[in-house]
Design brief:
Helices cover 47% and strands 15% of the residues. The chain has 247 residues and is an alpha/beta fold. It has a single domain (2-246), classed as 3-Layer(aba) Sandwich (Glycerol-3-phosphate (1)-acyltransferase). The protein has a seven-stranded mixed β-sheet, with helices on both faces.
Length: 247
């Protein structure tokens, strides 16, 4: 029953934010802070509707000045709402070119200054990466990337694609890992009980002095740190649920 109420409300919310976001985007097109504004508009009401309690522990992310590569794990389409709570100022995202065909959201994504990549066209993908590298170097803007390259709600992170790490080394900027607890497989849109989601950012990883030969080791270092953090957050949540069940 709750599912039949929630889904239309989430759909209405998605449309209304899309309309408002496009209007904001038309007033200040491609402003690098648009994405943060849009993320908050999507995130706060949606997670309330889904009964998700987001616990954000992202001091290192917000302490880092704009001009870094942010890497995060990607679990479901609901990440749009969950991660909307923690997008820092002057941050844009890399997304598939096909996103532009989603009514309202695609136009909002484009007006937010985000980067659309055609993954089927290697030349265009390289051009897009070169553009984002210049953005990191010259515009004090951070780039948000999901290095797994696809949604993954499993226990183990997939191997990271290397593009984000090449970009960070070429621009000479740090990498900030952002970890989200495994909320997707516990999400129950037909239930009323609140589910806690922890978002935790790790200390920036410097790329100073690195070359492209260091990319495989850097990507694996980042993946291992994030895997350890996610496993630790899951243990914390399990302990919290056990205490709640006993009380």
């Amino acid at each position: 029953m709750l599912f039949l109420i929630r889904m239309p409300l989430l759909g209405l919310h998605f449309v209304l934010v899309g309309i408002l976001g496009v209007l904001i985007g038309l007033c200040r097109p491609f402003n690098p802070d648009n994405s943060r504004v849009f993320a908050r508009l999507y995130g706060w009401p949606a997670t309330w509707l889904m009964r998700l309690q987001v616990q954000a522990e992202v001091g290192p992310l917000f302490d880092q000045p704009p001009g870094c590569v942010i890497v995060a794990n990607h679990q479901s389409n609901h990440d749009l709402f969950v991660l909307g709570h923690v997008v820092p100022p002057r941050t844009v995202c890399i997304g598939k070119k096909s996103l532009k065909w989603i009514p309202l959201f695609g136009q909002l994504f484009w007006l937010g200054g985000n980067v659309l990549v055609d993954r089927s066209n290697a030349y265009q993908a390289r051009r897009a990466m070169q553009t984002t590298t210049r953005t990191l170097q010259e515009q004090d803007t951070s780039i948000w990337v999901f290095p797994e390259g696809t949604r993954n709600a499993g226990d183990r992170l997939l191997a990271f694609k290397k593009g984000a790490f090449h970009m960070a080394i070429e621009a000479g900027v740090p990498i900030v890992p952002v970890c989200v607890s495994r909320y997707a497989r516990r999400l129950n849109l037909n239930g009323w009980r609140k589910q806690k989601v922890i978002i935790r950012s790790l200390a920036p990883i410097s790329t100073t002095g690195m070359t492209h030969q260091d990319v495989p080791a850097l990507a694996e270092q980042c993946r291992e740190q994030m895997q350890h953090c996610i496993d630790l957050m899951e243990k914390e949540l399990q302990a919290s649920r056990a205490v709640a069940d006993l009380s």
